[in-house]
Amino acid sequence: MGRRRIGRPVNGILLLNKPLGMSSNGALQKVRYLFSAAKAGHTGSLDPLASGVLPICLGEATKFTQFLLDADKRYRATFKFGMATASGDADGEVVSELGAEGLTQKQVESVLPDFRGDIEQVPSMYSALKHQGQPLYKLARKGVEIERKARPVTIYSLDMMHFRPGQLAEADLEIHCSKGTYVRTLAEDIGQQLGCGAYVSRLHRSAAGPFDELETVTLEQLVELREQQGVEALDSLLKPMDAGIQHMMSVELSEDMAFYFCQGQPMMVPQAYREGEEGDIVRVFETDGPFLGVGEVTDDGRVAPKRLVVI
Questions:
Q1: Whether this model's pTM surpasses 0.85
Q2: What is the domain partition of the chain in residue ranges?
Q3: Which of 6, 148, 228, 292 is buried most, with the most CB atoms less than 10 Å from its CB?
Q4: CB 17 within 8 A of CB 208
């Protein structure tokens, strides 16, 4: 018999504006506590030194976190030039200090095109990637260096908003990138190309997939609402379980078809047969009813269950 979960069966997605200084897991546990939720998961780590959009999935919505993990992201970042750190951010030990007094905005802008589009990055030793079950950042703190292979990522846009010259010049940039992009590595690579070094001094995630920072709430707002109206009032802040996959085709099943679909049987769906292709993931609903989960279009046009909601 499986272990019984303690907490409310809350289902949906909360868009949290994660504060500086808190880990993604720390934010997750705080949200789970405030909602008294039986189950929760986040959709990709955001460094303690970063703030911004952190979608947190509660209950059955945790079954769809992978789709948000795969989504692109938007950031506002400040790169500080003339100094490099071991971690690529402001928290790391300084490893070089060449200065950037002569660096100009024009020089920085001249190298940015080299980092737009499809590029390759070598992940930082201070990333959450795992080597033999151990996060790289834990190994880095022990002084262990592991060889990492370059990984392809896409920088959809990379634009400078402001530049402040000086011994440690600063540039504010807006970045739209694919999953798996490390902004600290981007700063390091740009600093290396300019010959002066660079690191990320500030980082804010402004969007994750379809979710924008304007939709987020803070931990302080959650605490205040719970204190004033009770824990169930927080549920009004949740987005539907399929909010992160609205770009996927939706199909509807009759009550009878929905029953068999939820038993694990593929269903012939004319819309999927006409409009879908083999391997497509679709959202599945009962006609005039609830969200049932996601299915995969088979080679004969049927929709096979892939992730089912159990409520």
A1: yes
A2: 12-70+211-240, 73-208, 248-308
A3: 292
A4: no
